[in-house]
Every structure is written in C-alpha cells, then in structure tokens.
Amino acid sequence: MSETLLEQHAAALRLFGERVRAVADDGWGAPTPCTEWTVRDLVNHVTGEMLWVPPLVSGGRTVEDVGEELSGDLLGADPVAAWERAAAGARDALAEPGALERTVNLSYGPTRGAAYCSELTADCVVHAWDLSRAIGASDRLPVGLVEFALKEVMPYADGLAASGMFAEPLDIPAGADAQTRLLALVGRRG
C-alpha cells in the first residue's frame, strides 16, 4: 500500500511540476479557477503545502511550532525552483522509513502520515487541473490520479465547502466520468 501511495504522491507532484514549468514568464498574474488566486497565488499555495511536510513529518513539529514560518510569498524570484525544492523535500520526508505510519499533528488534529499523504496527493491533483486551466494547458488529468483523488475526496466532500476553502459541490451529471465527478465534488465545472 505505502509504495503505491508514495508513487501516487510522486506522480501528482510531477504533474503539478510540469504545469509549473509551463507557466509563461508573463503568466504568473493570470486568473485561475480559484477565484481569489492568480497563477502565482495558486503555485505559492501548493508550494507552501509541500513545505509543511518536512517539519510536520520528519521533524515531528506541530502547526503551532511552525507558526508563521511558512506564510507569505514562498516563491521568491524563481517560482519554478521554489516549487522543485518544496516538492523534493515533501517527497523525501514522506519516503523516510516509517513516515506513513507516524502521527502527524495537523491543524485539525493528529493524523496518520499515510492519510496526510493521501490528502496532499488529492489536493495536488485538483490544483494541477486549476493550473492547467489557468495556463491554457490540457486539463485532462491522468485517470489513475483522478481515481485516487476521487476516492480520497468522496468521504468528506460534503464538508469541504464549510471549511471556506472550497466552493459548494456541483450536481454531478448522469454518466459523468471520474474527472467530472471529482471536479464537481470540489466545486469545479470540468
């Protein structure tokens, strides 16, 4: 199970990274499907999520311990390099022996490392779609990653909008494919 989970996480990072590398020099200010965010804001968000992994998983720190260390602009002058470093650090931390079995102290409480990794993977997949749309790249996502993310999101989809970080789920059309279902659950129309 853990090898497959780590492979899915690595694939989601590669997918998002491909999109980050495809952002045109003048494309960082473009709007995204996340209405409050530009391309730079979106990449900064996902980069920040990955930067949290080493201190929480490897360092055993809590959200309170980290505090404001990972707030604000995390991309600096070279957003692609910042993303690459963050993705590599997250991948390495989660691949440490026993990392997926550890308890990770997240903002909503103690969570098993594997559950945290699954959550990060699904979020990265959805944001890869957002970034694809924003930069005009193909928004067809790999089926395996979509199915993984859909399975991860389904149990708590009803509560996502209440978090204030997601739009209300949309009605899922009859006969919709996995990507359409996933996007609808997180308030996006594919």
Written overview of the protein:
- The protein has 190 residues and is mostly helical.
- It has a single domain (2-185), classed as dinb family like domain (Four Helix Bundle (Hemerythrin (Met), subunit A)).
- The protein contains eight helices and two strands.
- The protein has helices at residues 2-21, 39-58, 63-66, 79-95, 113-135, 143-153, 157-160, 178-185, and strands spanning 103-106, 109-112.
- Strands 1-2 form a two-stranded antiparallel sheet.
- Strand 1 (103-106) and strand 2 (109-112) form a beta hairpin.
- Helix 1 (2-21) runs antiparallel to helix 4, helix 1 runs parallel beside helix 5 and helix 5 crosses helix 6 (143-153).
CATH architecture: Up-down Bundle
Mean pLDDT level: 92
Instruction: Write down the domain tally.
Output: 1
Series of H and E elements: HHHHEEHHHH
The CATH topology comes to Four Helix Bundle (Hemerythrin (Met), subunit A)
Task: Find the structural class using helix and strand composition.
Answer: mainly alpha
Strand content: under 5%
Q: Give me the CATH superfamily.
A: dinb family like domain
Low-confidence stretches: none
Radius of gyration: 16 Å
What spatial form do the alpha-carbon principal axes imply? globular
Main sheet properties: 2 strands, antiparallel
Enumerate how many helices there are, as a single number: 8
